[in-house]
């Protein structure tokens, strides 16, 4: 996997909305944060326009992302919001120049489609991290500080409290993943997640339990867990109980689907659609150590 150059003070960085429209006030606050990091933010043409729920037309959003990828002065590209929309434009984006001059792509949720494309097709790392739209709930220091550390190449490691359903073990492999529903939508496309020999991160928001079960079962039937080295489960936010209920927690749904495998599993990693969204470098090698006392995740980027 190729890791793009880490950022340095004074670098120009692009801000785009390839999916849903983002409220301008959150963009303004995001710009202030980047300036505090001594970066020079450049707003794309998808910042401001609106077409339905999207940040402008498909063509505008595609062209905006393309221009940011091709601009040699832009050292990273930040998505402002998830929702839906990247898969409508990604197949028309040309990555020829990016392949030879990669830069960090940052975002989560719908950006999962872009992350899995970068790792699967271009063997290039990217960052799942907090976005401008998250500022609706205020500035979360832990989320933003972890993103800054990931972007500037500082040592990145996490320790997570034990969960009763964790499966102990040690694995070292490339980290891939994102939002479960988006990963399922990407199956069979060029952006399909590659899990063989890798560690997978999964999180989800706003789904019913039966849908969570169906997503995981679908991934199992597609062979996504067959040669997996480890699994990190992030925040399972606002997962709704069914009527009649399944009689399981969201974590138990995972374990029922994964009972035939023996790779280590960590539950409760603070990343995803919750109050804290710790940055993860997809495409980087990580060491996952799950014990009865704690889970540690160390990124091998130094």
From TrEMBL:
It comes from the Bacteria. GO terms for biological process: proteolysis. The active site is at residues 109, 203, 273. InterPro entries: Carboxypeptidase_A_C_sf, Class_I_gatase-like, LdcA_N, Peptidase_S66_N, Peptidase_S66C, S66_fam. Residues 13-127 form the LD-carboxypeptidase N-terminal domain. Keywords: Carboxypeptidase, Hydrolase, Protease, Serine protease. GO terms for molecular function: carboxypeptidase activity; serine-type peptidase activity. Residues 173-288 form the LD-carboxypeptidase C-terminal domain. Belongs to the peptidase S66 family. PANTHER family: MURAMOYLTETRAPEPTIDE CARBOXYPEPTIDASE, MUREIN TETRAPEPTIDE CARBOXYPEPTIDASE. This is LD-carboxypeptidase. It comes from Pontibacter fetidus.
């Amino acid at each position: 996997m190729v890791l793009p150059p880490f950022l340095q003070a004074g670098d120009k960085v692009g801000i785009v909305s390839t999916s849903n429209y983002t409220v301008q006030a959150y963009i303004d606050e995001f710009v202030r944060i980047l300036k505090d990091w001594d970066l020079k933010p450049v707003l794309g043409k998808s910042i401001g326009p609106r077409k339905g729920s999207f940040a402008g037309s498909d063509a505008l959003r595609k062209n905006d992302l393309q221009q940011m990828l091709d601009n040699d002065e832009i050292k990273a590209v930040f998505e402002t919001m998830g929702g839906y929309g990247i898969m409508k434009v990604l197949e028309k984006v040309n990555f020829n120049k990016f392949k030879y001059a990669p830069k960090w792509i940052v975002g989560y949720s719908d950006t999962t489609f872009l992350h899995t494309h970068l790792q699967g097709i271009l063997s290039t790392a990217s960052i799942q991290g907090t976005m401008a739209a998250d500022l609706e709930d205020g500035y979360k220091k832990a989320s933003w500080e972890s993103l800054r550390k990931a972007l500037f190449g500082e040592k990145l490691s996490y320790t997570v409290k034990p969960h009763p359903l964790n499966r102990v073990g040690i694995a070292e492999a490339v980290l891939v993943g994102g939002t479960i529903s988006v990963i399922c939508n990407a199956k069979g496309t060029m952006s399909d997640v590659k899990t063989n020999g890798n560690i997978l991160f999964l999180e989800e928001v706003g789904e019913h339990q039966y849908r969570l079960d169906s997503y995981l079962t679908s991934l199992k039937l597609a062979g996504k867990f067959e040669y997996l080295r480890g699994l990190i489960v992030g925040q399972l936010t606002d997962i709704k109980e069914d009527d009649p209920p399944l009689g399981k927690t969201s974590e138990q749904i995972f374990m029922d689907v994964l009972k035939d495998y023996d790779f280590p599993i960590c539950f409760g990693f603070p990343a995803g659609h919750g109050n804290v969204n710790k940055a993860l470098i997809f495409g980087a090698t990580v060491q996952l150590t799950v014990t009865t006392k704690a889970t540690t995740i160390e990124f091998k980027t130094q």
